[in-house]
Amino acid sequence: MTINNMKNNKIALFVILLSSILLSCSSKAQIYPDKNWSSNQNPEAKGWVEPEYSIFNRYVIDSTNITGLVIIHKGEIVFEYGDIEENSYIASCRKSILAMLFGKYVENGTIDLNKTLKALEINDVSKLLPIEKKAKIKDLISARSGVYLNGSNGGDFRRYAPKRGTIEPGSYWLYNNWDFNLAGYIFEKETNSNIYDEIESQLAIPLQMEDWDKTLQRKNGNLEVSKFPAYHMWFSTRDMARIGLLMLRKGKWNNKQIIPEKWVDEIITQRTSYKEAQKNVPVLKEDGIDLGYGYMWWLIENTDDYRLKNAYSAQGALGQNITVYPEIDVVLAYKTKSDYRRRNSIQTQMKVMKKAIEIYNPN
After folding, report:
1. Does domain 46-358 have CATH number 3.40.710.10?
2. Which of 67, 25, 22, 21 shows the shortest CA–CA distance to 352?
3. By CB count within 10 A, which of 50, 82, 175, 205 is most buried?
4. Segment 150-197, tens digit of pLDDT
5. 279 φ/ψ angles, rounded to the nearest 5 degrees
């Protein structure tokens, strides 16, 4: 063996050892809960400072109707309020969870996002127009179908819809429950599986959710208006936080890829800018945070706060929220139990999303 070969072998060995050390350090830094979340006993040492910490706590108590809230930093609880164990209705956060379920089936070819409603033989109580049948699955999950039929449940922005038949599918954003409910129907039709079974197998079991109860889950809606029901969901706040942490970790849980990493990136890729969303739905200008849209997840845009850069969110009526802040390794989850018939305005929900990370100042 020549001296040069010996040198090359030593360099190669050094590179392998260095890579192993870096990989070990990286995996060590990635903390996940097992059956229970761990709480950081000294959050101030990690940058969660007083007096902002106490001010935020008082804000949640005095100025919101939130019934459970948790902040996760680097995989551990740094802030907790209310009952984070109770399962309750999470409203439109269901759509973001459905988006995650699509991943493995898009990856293995079971679901073709370019398949049209015509090819899927979709129709409803009110018949689809020929132009509407051109809409693709990807148009449904990005709220750009161009189909403005009533959904079987309310809680959307259909009141801002253009006249039916005037919009080319894919060219215009409008948040309409008909799109999302149909996306759920198509998911079950194409995979030959039930949404709630998929949540259990894809998410609840591998993430070791503490409170998941499949018997609580049920579909609902006025089927005389639309034959596609809403797939409502009931989660606890701390299990919602597991969903957020999975997204933050690009679909990986411990050493297993639960959701394809490429699909997580697709979900949070901008399909609609905040400017287009505000133009089509003017009320969004009043929210306090500029929001774009991906695949059934809201994207935080137009911010100078580094903590909010590249953040994204699942949001639901009354005050249901999972927000992921990748730049600071943080997940926020909070909930307002609908049984109490109390709600948070959209503006309040946006304030909570901002105020939660104002506590964090590592400098």
Report:
1. yes
2. 67
3. 175
4. 999 998 999 999 999 999 999 999 999 999 999 999 999 999 999 999
5. -65, -45
